[in-house]
Amino acid sequence: MNPTGRPRTWFRRLPVVTRLVLAVAITMSLVLAGTAGLVYWRVRTALDQQLNDDLTTYRRSLDHAVRTGAQLPPGPSGSLQQVLDAHGRVLHSSDAVRHQLLLTPAELGAVTRGATLRCDIGSLLPITADTLRLQAKRVTADGQPRIVIAAVRRGHRDEALRELLAQLALASGLTLVAASYVGYRTARAALRPVERYRGGAATLADGTQNLRLDVPGDRDDEITRLGHTLNHMLDRLEASAERERRFVADASHELRTPLTVMRAELDVALHRPRSAGELTETLRSVDTEVQHLIDLSNALLDLEELGSTDHVTRAPVRLADLVDTAVAPHLRPAERAGRDLTVEAADTTVDVDARWLRPAIGNLVDNALRHGHGNVHLTATVQGSRLRLRITDTGPGFPPEFLPRAFDRFARAEASRTSEGSGLGLAFVHAVATAHGGTAYAENTGQGTAVTLDLPC
User: How many C-beta atoms lie closer than 10 Å to residue 180's C-beta?
Assistant: First the structure.
């Protein structure tokens, strides 16, 4: 008993090719049997019709001769005749049957009561000698009832039907074998790419890198589409593995420095007795590094989550509210630094993922306040179906050689390597833009730096 409640049959355990061949063979057997049966029935009907017509004509001539008292006429080649009285006694009979009654008592009774009887003696298979088809009818001669029996031999008809059966069996057998062979070859050819894909997957399981299945480019059938789907899955797996390797490499690279600083501070503190003030200073330094680790870990996790998300969840949101909420935490730090932070946002509704776009705007503002100089201005406009966020400052700008990699992870201009920050802010902005189907780019305007976020809304 199958634990799932569904019975397992031997058929389900067979290989797919075997099941397909069996299905073709069974279907062809049914079709061939039906076709052969139809042909046999049509031919037998035609032969029986001809035989019955000849037999009816012969019996009518015998009926006429018995009624008129004339001599019984000869019938077709191989025909027989017999005349009985009402009690079943033979009054006249062909030499081939002599006094042998051609009717059974039941058949004789039926004809005596007025029925016209037609029946066969002998069978088609197995082969028997002296097969006959006869007709019997009651007639009246000189006021007395007579039973007139006309019979013809079925040898030629039976031989023709047996030959037909043999030819149909041979033709059906050959057709079935040919159809099964073609079905087998077709199934093997159709499933050969699947076996090749299976071999490729086994190779991938063994640790092979950058594996792609060889999918024909000139076909578009189910197997080809399966190959494209598997290649797409391999692309996703490789991208996922690359993201994992990159995450581990980035984390190990960036976490090493704060951990080393913390270990050095603690080693110095434990090396000799320290005053309360020195211990407090050491703990403040360790606390700073711990906070840096927390910020770095959160940034890495956000980037990993955003990179592994297939699509963003868009929802209508007022652009002005979105920008004001993102900028609000930075107003006081800007004021303390003596810098103006101004915002110009269109009063319209955009269809974006506010969960990701809000921190991206915050990163742009934070990056401008941290690494730029002078006033910071943020504009948010909508043109057609595109949202354009642009933030500018009046600082010295990016070094020209840094611009092409400004959005790379942990990329920092030389002048900012000793400043605070992890180098993940612009990388996060670029990831958010990409997830929305947009772009992010940085440029030097001659009066400072401009970073633009352009995405569909």
Answer: 16
Task: Please choose, from the candidates 29, 28, 50, 48, the residue with its C-alpha nearest in 3D space to the C-alpha of residue 40.
Answer: 48
Strand order through the sheet with 341-345:
341-345, 376-383, 386-393, 449-456, 439-444
Using a cut of 0.85, tell me whether the model's pTM lies above it: no
- Give residue for tokens 């074998």: 177
CB 455 within 8 A of CB 436: yes
**Structural domains in the chain?**
18-159 (3.30.450), 212-308 (1.10.287.130), 315-456 (3.30.565.10)
Which amino acid, 105? P
263: phi then psi, degrees, rounded to nearest 5: -65, -40
Q: Judge contact between 364 and 326, C-beta under 8 A.
A: no
CA end-to-end span of the chain, whole Å? Answer: 58
Tokens of 339: 């810098």
Name 377's bridge partners.
Answer: 342, 392
Beta bridge partners, 80, equal 151
Do 286 and 265 contact (CB within 8 A), yes or no? yes
Task: Give 20's contacts (C-beta < 8 A, 6+ positions apart).
Answer: 183, 184, 187
Task: Please provide residue 297's backbone torsions phi and psi, each rounded to the nearest 5 degrees.
Answer: -65, -45
CA 363 to CA 426: how far, in whole Å?
A: 7
The region that residue 374 occupies, defined by phi over 0 for left and psi between -120 and 50 for alpha, beta otherwise, is left
Q: CA angle 339-345-351, nearest 5°?
A: 135
Tell how far CA 13 is from the center of its chain. 21
Give the containing element (helix H, strand E) for 343.
strand 341-345
Do the beta carbons of residue 326 and residue 362 sit within 8 Å? yes
| CA nearest neighbour of 246 among 456, 427, 56 | 427
Q: What are phi and psi of 151, to 5 degrees?
A: -135, 145
Q: What angle do CA 280, 284, 287 make, to 5 degrees?
A: 135
Report which secondary-structure segment, H or E, holds 187.
helix 155-205
H and E: helices and strands count for the chain: 9, 12
Taking 70 as the pLDDT cut, the residues of the chain under it are: 1-9, 204-211, 243, 247, 250-255, 257, 292, 295-296, 299-300, 303-305, 307-311, 409-423
